[in-house]
Automatic annotation (TrEMBL):
The keyword Hydrolase applies. The lineage of its organism: Bacteria, Bacillati, Actinomycetota, Actinomycetes, Micromonosporales. GO terms for molecular function: hydrolase activity. This is N-Dimethylarginine dimethylaminohydrolase. It comes from Actinoplanes derwentensis. Keywords: Hydrolase. The keyword Hydrolase applies.
Length: 273
């Protein structure tokens, strides 16, 4: 099957203020210093890789005191011009949601809906517009409350499939599952509860299955335009798997962002107007 790209629009935030000042996931180590200059260079390489593939990248201004703003995927979740805002689990990140809300409310292209329930945006939501008429896959277990799934369904008008995450190392859905195009996914089964594994197998019998080593390399924290799959350089085996499935892997070095528990997808929010 020929894999065809689709032009996308993304939102990213440069890591000028990125540090690991606190530990809110198993990957964060406050004793290991972050190379801020290297983080910015790696981030910019990711940005130029996306624009070089023909995609539009909007940039959100970083704010001092919010070191995790670089993980822009967590700030909201948009579908067809409607934006379901984030409400972060941890107070250290709470003000990021305000910055994202301001971004969307500046223009006339978006209908922004503030959440009542805790959720961390695209960190725990993925949209597949051509699967079953358009469905949202939603993770819970560590960061997002299950009640946010029902709230998102009402806000977005799309069916939401709840998936339980059970391994603290894969605390967001986007560390355990990724959309490869508008109807195909890749995921690591061991990150999910047995029931959620059965749901995924039923919905996506042709999924590209990852193993734990792929997930630990943040190989599932990827961005795909339907043909080009952008992964970090450590995810070599995952690159082979997506190539075997007909996609073209594009590797980008993001070693510094991994110190905070994220990689390619965490740094990139898709804007679906």
């Amino acid at each position: 099957m020929e894999r065809l790209p689709r032009n996308r629009t993304y939102l990213m935030c440069p890591p000028q203020h990125f540090t690991v000042e606190y530990a809110i996931n198993p990957w964060m180590d406050t004793t290991a210093a972050v190379d801020a200059d290297l983080a910015v260079r790696q981030w910019d390489k990711l940005r130029t890789t996306l624009t070089g593939l023909g995609h539009v990248v909007h940039v959100l201004d970083p704010v001092p005191g919010l070191p995790d703003m670089v993980y822009s995927a967590n700030g909201a979740f948009s579908v067809d011009g409607t934006v379901y805002g984030a409400r972060f689990r941890y107070p250290q990140r709470a003000n990021e949601a305000v910055e994202h809300r301001t971004f969307y409310q500046r223009g006339d292209d978006w209908r922004f809906v503030a959440p009542e329930h805790v959720n961390e945006g695209e960190g725990d939501f993925a949209y597949l517009p051509n699967a079953y008429g358009g469905i949202v896959l939603a993770g819970y277990g560590f960061r997002t409350d299950p009640a946010a799934h029902a709230e998102a369904q009402e806000v977005l008008g799309r069916p939401v499939i709840s998936l339980k995450l059970v391994d603290p190392a894969f605390y967001h859905l986007d560390t355990a599952l990724a959309a490869l195009d508008d109807r195909h996914v890749t995921y690591y089964p061991g990150a999910f509860s047995p029931a959620s594994q059965r749901i995924l197998a039923q919905l996506f019998p042709d999924a590209v299955l990852a193993d734990r080593a792929d997930a630990e390399a943040f190989g599932l924290n990827l961005v795909s335009d339907g043909r080009h799959v952008i992964l970090n350089t450590e995810a070599v085996a995952m690159g082979h798997k997506v190539r075997e499935a007909g996609y073209l892997p594009v590797h980008v070095e993001l070693s510094e962002l991994k110190r905070g528990g994220g990689s390619v997808k965490c740094a990139v929010a898709e804007l679906r107007a």
